[in-house]
Automatic annotation (TrEMBL):
Alphabetized UniProt keyword annotations: ATP-binding, Nucleotide-binding
Organism: Streptomyces roseoverticillatus
Gene3D superfamilies: P-loop containing nucleotide triphosphate hydrolases
Keyword ATP-binding applies: yes
Residues passing through the membrane, by range: none
Protein's recorded name: ATP-binding protein
Length: 853
């Protein structure tokens, strides 16, 4: 027998190399069952590590090391990192549940088309743990011979065994759920997809039976493909025998003695960063070729040693090094190799650390699966890119020669370790330092897609401005950054999504550049209106009209206060507030009240003070700032509390600072304050009306520093922010000054999402870092400085740092789904033939591609 084993070992077919392929007998949620054993499979969550502070990273890595040492000690584990192509069509189906207003189907189609262009893959982390050896494994191994392809066993699985295995998997799952990986049992559909994808199965995945199992013929469908091994790759064939894909398994042969994390030590997280330049086709221009992601898929089988076994192994290595040192000392040279001395010292130190801390060793067998569906040459180009990438950080990677079949089978779920030669022994802390679960992750789990991640891992980003109330969370979102970096366009895209969700969207446009939001909304069938200041929009901000329903009683006091603000100082000093209140009461008593009627009543009064007051207000009502809130309507659209988008443009207003005396206000300042008073009162009444509690509401304030400069504006913002959750009202602010925003404690406390665009001064950068929950310092300042420019230092519109409701931060690119939409939302003014402000500036295709780069 020993002679036969020796011959087999010499021929390279000893031990597990010659084991037959796995024979699946059943799949269930969290379980893969073969004839010989059962594995529990878990879907691991990702951590957002790109912008994580050093202290937070260290703490999470320690938690992962502890989980490896305590929870997984003694288990045979299989870690797989897979890339799932984004199925853009799913978003079209999801739109039926997300949106309800306008031509939302066309809006969803627009986004689907853009997602198909982006081709963003989704990273999936799966961990398999062997939890049980089945009773009939010896018989099964003895009765089966070597097979060339995966087969299906006929052994059935009893319900009693399923229940036992499910209990074991759930028990282990509860422990893994509390780790940084937040493990959840993989669904049976996910497990079926994982098994079928290795053979490029194009048939629909089978559905589980009424017991949640996939067995028998349904399971056979997953493994009926053909895979042909070659010396340096395997070929996947379809049902007609044609090659549909090429895959190569690469082995990681050597690692440096020390690796830094963050940095090169994150060798599992960094697989998403590997790119290559494909070969030019005959009809392609060299200028059209860009670097494409390789997306190799790591498959790592590992086993965490019990501390007792690890200490024994360390002691053996230390003792061997000591014997070598002593032997060398007896020779004439009397010198010991430096490596031997270092090994002895290292083993002694490691043994001491293991006895003091929660540290142990693990043995891992890392493989990298590189695939291509283009050509064999393309596969080899991808492999060269992977080898070169890891070679740059000191990791030796090579294409496994003559063992592609064995390594390909080894990577299958439910298989076993077949090529044990290339084993690496390291501490659990070193393996955790690979950060296989790290990367970029930010945004809501569901909701409208707004863009994509630009960090170390790809993916789409979702954000729902109106989702806070449904979660019982805060409802304030802030867009912060310098002018011209795309924050207003980004906000308008999010407001469009809110409009399609059936929300009432009120945008107070103090800069006058949000008219494109209305154009875009009307283009896709939304109830969208643009209201401007001026005589043509007289009466649109009349508080008698705005404060309707249960808020109507407030008009009896709000209108006199508003007119009092507009009055010249000398009339107010003579007591003009009294006749104004009297006229308001009389107009209300007559029915169908309006502010212009109050002014007419004052002008027709026999009292001299009343007439002077009415005449003064009448003249002011003819101005561009006075007409909207106290002018006589001329048939223009009025704001109504119905789903839709209402953009109120009030450019050119000048609000006094809180320190300015009211006696010193100019006419322009008085009318500006009075007009804003209308808008704020309407916003508060809309948010608080009981009959509108079920309506999604969004109040958007671009250039919010216009309001934060006044006491009334600051109070309004903090009120909406604090009561937004209860009143189903979201507040969206846009500012260039995070310092002044940070002073509004009530507003900052209620921020659920923050989008940080480029800022250039250290004070503003530090204020933004606090709002983004990033550590203050030179590194963060440099990050905020660089976020708005590309590698050529040109402006990169729409690129920002997003902090989500979970206080995770990552770099994000807002994505405009089409050139037409970018033109509609363009905020750059253009001089028309008459010398006034025209429509949006048409953008060339190259400019659109630059924005969405």
């Amino acid at each position: 027998m020993k002679i036969m084993k020796g011959i087999a070992r010499f021929l390279g077919v000893d031990g597990d190399r010659s084991a037959p392929p796995p024979r699946y007998v059943g799949l269930a949620d969290g379980l893969v069952i073969t004839e010989t054993h059962a594995e529990a499979w878990y879907l691991l969550g990702s951590s957002n590590t790109d912008l994580m502070s050093e202290a937070a990273r260290d703490a999470e890595q320690d938690q992962a090391s502890s989980a490896l040492a305590r929870t997984l000690a003694g288990y045979d584990c299989h870690l797989k990192i897979l890339w799932s192509p984004l199925n853009a069509e799913d978003y079209r189906t999801e739109a039926e549940t997300l949106f309800s207003a306008g031509d939302y189907a066309a809006w969803a189609d627009l986004r689907v088309g853009r997602l198909e262009e982006l081709e963003l893959p989704t990273r999936m982390l799966l961990l398999g743990v062997r939890i049980s050896e089945r009773a009939n494994q010896a018989k099964a191994r003895g009765s089966r011979g070597v097979q060339d392809a995966l087969g299906i066993g006929s052994t059935s699985v009893s319900q009693k065994e399923i229940a036992r295995l499910d209990a074991l998997a759930r028990r282990l799952g509860r422990q893994l759920e509390t780790t940084p990986w937040k493990a959840q049992p993989a669904t049976v559909e996910l497990l079926a997809w994982m098994i079928a994808r290795e053979q490029r199965r194009s048939t629909p995945l089978p559905s589980p039976d009424d017991k949640g199992m996939i067995t028998g013929a349904k399971l056979a469908q997953l493994t009926r493909g053909r895979v042909l091994p070659y010396p340096d790759h395997v070929r996947v064939l379809d049902q007609r025998g044609e090659t549909v894909g090429w895959s190569a398994i690469l082995t990681m042969d050597g690692f440096p003695e020390e690796m830094e994390s963050p940095g090169p030590g994150e060798w599992l997280r960094s697989v998403a960063e590997i790119t290559y330049v494909p070969e030019l086709m005959d009809d392609e221009d060299a200028g059209d070729i860009t670097a494409l992601p390789v997306n190799p898929e790591p498959s790592v089988r590992f086993k965490v040693l019990h501390k007792r076994d690890a200490l024994k192994q360390i002691d053996e290595v230390r003792r061997l090094a000591k014997e070598q040192r002593q032997s060398a000392a007896k020779h004439s040279a009397g010198e010991t190799a430096q490596e031997i001395e270092e090994t002895e010292e290292t083993m002694t130190s490691l043994s001491r650390d293991m006895k003091r801390e929660d540290v142990t060793l693990l043995e891992d067998h890392p493989r990298l699966i590189v695939s291509s569906d283009v050509s064999l040459e393309d596969l080899r180009s991808r492999c060269d890119a992977v080898i070169g990438f890891y070679g740059g950080v000191g990791i030796e990677v090579s294409v496994a020669a003559e063992e592609q079949r064995e390594l390909w089978l080894e990577a299958q779920p439910g298989d076993m370790l077949r090529v044990p030669d290339l084993v690496h022994t390291r501490t659990v802390g070193a393996f955790a330092g690979s950060w296989f679960w790290g990367g970029a992750s930010v945004g809501d789990d569901t909701g409208p897609v707004i863009g994509y991640l630009t960090g170390s891992t790809p993916g789409v980003v979702r954000n729902d401005l109106t989702g806070g109330s449904e979660r019982g969370d805060a409802t304030t979102t802030a867009f912060i950054g310098r002018s011209g970096r795309g924050k207003t366009t980004a906000m308008m895209l999010s407001l469009l999504d809110s409009g399609f969700r059936g929300s009432f969207v009120l945008a107070l446009d103090f800069k006058g550049d949000m008219g494109g939001l209305v154009s875009a909304g009307q283009r896709y069938g939304l109830n969208a209106h643009l209201i401007e200041t001026g005589s043509q929009f007289a009466g649109v901000a009349d508080l008698f009209f705005l404060l309707s329903g249960e808020s109507a009683e407030r008009a009896q006091t709000e209108v006199p206060a508003q007119l009092g603000i507009s009055l010249p100082q000398h009339l107010r000093m003579r007591g003009a507030e009294t006749p104004i209140q009297s006229a308001v009461n009389e107009i209300i008593a007559e029915g169908d009240p309006a502010t212009w009627k109050v002014i007419e009543r004052l002008r027709q009064s026999s009292d001299e003070l009343s007439r002077e007051t009415g005449d003064a207000l009448y003249e002011l009502s003819l101005t561009g700032l006075g007409a909207p809130f106290m002018g006589k309507p001329s048939g223009s659209s009025l704001i109504t509390p119905t789903p839709g988008i209402w953009v109120i443009q009030v450019p050119g207003i000048t609000l006094p600072s809180p320190d300015d005396s009211r006696d010193d206000w100019s006419v322009h300042q008085r009318l500006s304050v009075a007009l804003v008073h209308s808008l704020l009162a309407y916003g508060i009444s809309m948010a608080g009306r009981k009959d509108l509690r079920g309506l999604r509401k969004v109040v958007a304030v671009p250039e919010v520093h216009v309001l934060t400069a006044t006491r009334e504006g600051s109070s309004f913002l903090q009120y909406i922010a604090r009561v937004g959750r209860a009143l189903h009202t979201a507040l969206v602010v846009d500012t260039q000054d995070p310092e002044s925003l940070a002073s509004l404690t009530g507003l900052v406390e209620q921020m659920t999402t923050v989008f940080g665009f480029q800022l250039t001064t250290p004070e503003q950068q530090d204020a933004m870092a606090a709002l983004l929950d990033l550590p203050k310092g030179a590194h963060t300042r440099q990050l905020i400085q660089a976020i708005g420019v590309d590698v050529t230092q040109e402006i990169r519109h729409g690129h920002c740092i997003m902090r989500d409701r979970r206080f995770s931060s990552a770099t994000v690119q807002f994505d405009v789904p089409s050139l037409e939409m970018l033109q509609l939302l363009n905020t750059t003014p253009k001089a028309d033939s008459s010398g006034g402000a025209g429509g949006p500036v048409p953008l060339a295709k190259s400019e659109y591609e630059e924005v969405n780069a």
